[in-house]
Amino acid sequence: xxxTDNRAELGDILTDMRGYLADTPPALSLPPAAYSSSxxxxxxxxxxxxxxxxxxxxxxxxxxxxxxxAVSIAGELVMVVRGGDGELRALSxxxxxxxxxxxxxxxxxxxxxxxxxxLWRYGLDGRLRGAPHMAGNKDFxxxxxxxxxxxxxxxxxxxxVNLDRDAEPIGAHLDxxxxxxxxxxxxxxxxxxxxxxxxxxxxxxxxxxGHENYHVLGLHRQTLEPLVPGGGDxxxxxxxxxALRIRVPFAFPAEAKSLPLNEVQRANLSVLxxxxxxxxxxxxxxxxxxxxxxxxxxxxxxxxxxxxTPELAADPAARDQTARLLTAMINDExxxxxxxxxxxxxxxxxxxGHLSPKEQPGMLAFxxxxxxALVGHRSGGG
Length: 382
What we know:
The protein is an alpha+beta fold.
């Protein structure tokens, strides 16, 4: 049960968030307590993470029977696995007997899911295949025992999961971006790099960071500032409550020898965000995807990969260019910066900060979607 002080703090946070739903929202950051409140975290688990789509993989990681990826979404373990029938399934990999996880977080390949506690075994479709010495329990029917299935969807090669099996499909929202992302041939791209990291920061800090480019001035002076200057103006387009596009001007046009990109696409980094924490960033002939999977109040798992055209994936010189892009975009600069900010949110002197005009369009769009999910009238799913 919440103490009076904790209840008051949560109420103050949600009251501040309601301000972002106004026609003229305050150009201020979230209250510092929003990044450390255990009460807000529980509300987020219920109203956001239990009903939102999370980007967890590219289909190239799940190409063969038995290939799987497993993630923990705010404490709930989920796996996506390629079945023998070729279908992708999202399952809760928690043994139905005594609740031991059948897999660890990460990626791998298996022909069956076996619990190491009592050797109960499940097929890749989640059905129970073996339960030693259970025949003597007359109340137990193995045909009724199977791992719970969750929602899974593939959109242009990217794999999404949702804890809500009845969630509204995410594809209908992402399809609204087709015009802006036409020419990238997303469905034909192949994955050439992938990664998984843990950052000691609240998930909202990671999402905020991706909704503005202003921080490039400081955190990425040598890496990204020469490519996508932090002083550029953002162009933000909200397709739906669940999907928006951010354009960030390049310092110089990107090459596009293998893609029919238009002038706007060559001139800008185009980022497609899916609320609350998934993104793909199209930079010329390469696309980088991110999934910021919440682990706890101050931990976020950062999943991602680099996609490119089959032609460039087979070209050694192009692979070197991809490696340089990866080094520029995926490094410790964001992690170290956000982990420092997380520490700063705990200061007794911390307060809401005024947002620069360079960060307002993206940050306020994220805050508006966050407020709609927590205190607005948004329905579940999608």
